[in-house]
Amino acid sequence: MKKVLIGLAAVLILIFGGLTVFVNTKSDFIIQKVSEILESSLNAKLETEQLPKISVFPSLSVSAGKSSLKAPDFSLTFNSASVNVSLFKLLSGTVQINSVAVDALNLDYAAVSDKNSAQQKQENTTEAQQPKTLEEIFALVPAKISVTNSNIKYKDSSMQVALNNINAQIEDFGINKNSSVTLQGNAAYKDKSQDIAFSLNTDIGFLFMGQSLEYDIKTFNFTPVKGFPFTQPVDVTAESSVNFKPFVIESLNGVIKSPFAELTLKGSGDDKKGNLTVDGELFPAAIQENFLADTRFANLPKSVKIQAALSNTPADITLKELLANVHDGIIKLSGRYDMQKKDLQAKVYAENLKIQDYLPQSTANGSAKKTAAKTAGTAENKKTAQSSGTNLTFNITADASKIHYNTYTVDAVHSLISGKISGKEKTVTIKPLTVTKEDESIQLSAKLELEPKDLISVSLDGQNLDTKKWTKGLTDKNPLDAKLSAKSSLTFKSADPLNTLNGSGNLSGSALRIETKLLPFITNLLQLNFTLQDFYEFTKLNVPFTIKNGLLTTDSSYVDSPAISVTAAGTTHLAKQSLNFAGNAELKKQGLVFPYKVSGTYADPKIGLDLGKQLQVLGKGLLNTGEALGSGVVEGGKTVGGGVLEGGKAIGGGLKEGGRLLEEGLGKLFK
Do 150 and 104 touch, CB atoms closer than 8 A? Predict the structure, then answer.
């Protein structure tokens, strides 16, 4: 692009080149010298249809007719051009350009690198050794520039840009001058993936060194042509006026029409305060189709009506309310952004939302693409975040009521979310998050240190919760009826949560009614003909646990009742889903204890008796049984003579049946 600037400078030299050798020099001699310079430095050929015209008084002006400058990588043509220079300043040794006018300028540039880095570096160093003062620089800036019916085209290996039918009037450009620009035209941008086109008619006013900028967009129309993230045309027609210092939307009236939105914007105000309203519809299903084609959602609404009211002053932007009607529910947003402190205070409220409607139903291919994209972009994202100059603090109050997931309903949700985003850190604190169902609440607090630690800390506290209430809507039959309390403190890294989970906690409960298949398994295995129920009543549950790098360990978990007691100790790895537990199941009324083992995985658990411990228990039981039987015979012999025979017969039969039972049970165990 530097060559283009040099070429433009050469054209200016052509136009007012007579100034260098003053008025009496012939124009054809000027053209000859300029042509030689361009030929040697840019390999560019200059052609003109007629000689430049020079006027001396009252100011020095030079005008040229149709001309062209052609080089291997660019061409520049115009129908006419003129430059007006202050004669008084010129006589005092200063070139001050009053105005430049160009008609039908056409620039076609294709970037080609024809200089090695050493040569380019040398040129840059040479240029840097010749600094100019601000006065010298702005003396060469035209006070008035007029461009009419012009076209500019730029192309390199990755993109193409075309500016067509450009008409611009720039006046009083310079230090601390109130300048204005009138711009009309259209532009098109194209790269390997997308095309964009828009037309523009605008007035711009600015104070250069004072950094003040105002604009008034009379018309603006935008249309994606090809390969854009959305393929359908977007028609944006707007009139707007904005003061950038201070930043205030003084007026905005426009319409946005597209396959995914139809919005009407209206604004009014002055340099102290502006107001803006937005009214219209968003089309989530169309947004999904255009932007998230690889992801399918359960039940996105075709249309969402939105209404929004904003106001802003030089110090802040306030969203009075944004209301969205989604299916049968609503979402409300409000907040204030302090532009100086870069601080956001906001409130979010949702009511009667069905979460399942908005959950993605990703295909395998879609999931794979997302995973690959996430993996590929992780390093780049971290690099971008670390170098970002963003600085934002925020406090958000979030409330919701009647939130549904299929047939499951949460009555209320409340949370306070605060955070900080900067070039060095990203932290989010959630305290508290309170979830309420039928007048009972669970509280959760969390801290997300996304960067640089990627560490998430979570604390959970729920006291004396009625599981019937909390499981209502999850299943047709509640498998658990109890009063439970849970407390835990956990940390993990979001990149690999199950393998990096650390912490501890405790689950306790009372009045439990639990379905279990462990006891029927044991009694069936030993052919014990006890009548067992599908559900068992327990008076107490206690499960203390610790977690280290995803491995959960419990040493003394138990569930107890007057009839049954079950203990457990062991480990499970949450990521590998492995099971390694052992304990005792005791039938108190029958006086029987069954040691058991649990192994395998969550999907395929293996439950069996601990054979070594079971033999010990059975051996001890036999000794105890023999002692009792012996005593019974003696007692029977002392008291009842005839009864001894009958008693012996009965006892003998009992011993025989007991032996057969033990033999069959052990035989099945060893199988």
Answer: yes
